[in-house]
Amino acid sequence: MNQTREIVQGWAHCRHGLCPGYMQEQVEAVRVETEFTFRDMGGKGSVPGVERSTVELLWADPDQAACPACGTPREITDQERPVYEMSGYDPMGLVNGGSSGFDRMVVNSEADERVAALEAQVAKLAALVESQGA
Ligand SMILES: [Zn+2]
C-alpha cells in the first residue's frame, strides 16, 4: 500500500439546499490517495503497477468543517459546482418551491432565436398572403 498526501484547492458546501451555506466556498483540502498493488490485494506473482486506488479529501483546517450558517457538518469536494446554460428557470426553483417561475427575458439558446426569426417571417408571409387573397 502506498499513500500520498498533498494540499489542494477544495470547495466546501452545506448539505441543506435552503441553507445560505449551500453556496460553495473555496477552502484548502488535504487530498489523500491510497494505492494498492496486485500483491497488496493478496495476489501471487509479479503484476506491475497499481491495481486499485482511492482518493479522499480531508479538511486542512478542521474548524472549517462546520457550516458557518447552521453548524451542521459540510461536504468538501475537489470539483467546483457546474453552471449550466441559462434556461429561464430559477436553478434553485425546485428547492425554493418554484415560486419565481419562468423568466421569458432569458434567451435559452440559439434555437430559440432562430424560431423567433422564423415566426416573424411567417407572420410577414401570412400578412402578404392575406392581402393578396382579399
Ligand atoms: Zn448550513
Describe the protein's architecture and organization:
The protein has 134 residues and is an alpha+beta fold. It has a domain at 2-77. 18% of the residues lie in helices and 28% in strands. It is built from 1 helix and 4 strands, in the order ββββα. It has one helix at 110-133; strands at residues 2-13, 25-37, 50-59, 75-77. A 4-stranded antiparallel beta sheet has the order 3-2-1-4, with no helix packed on it. The model has no long low-confidence stretch (mean pLDDT 88). Bound molecules: zinc ion. Residues 14, 16, 19, 21, 67, 69-70, 72 line the site of zinc ion.
Spatial shape: elongated
Identify every distinct bound molecule in the structure, by name, code or SMILES: zinc ion
User: What proportion of the residues is helical, as a percent range?
Assistant: 10-25%
> What is the count of β-strands?
4
The largest β sheet comes out as: 4 strands, antiparallel
Query: How far is the first residue's CA from the last residue's CA?
Result: 87 Å
What is the mean pLDDT?
88
Strand order of the largest sheet: 3-2-1-4
* Total DSSP helices: 1
Unreliable runs: none
Percentage of residues in DSSP E strands: 25-35%
Q: Find the structural class using helix and strand composition.
A: alpha+beta
Radius of gyration: 27 Å
What is the helix/strand order? EEEEH
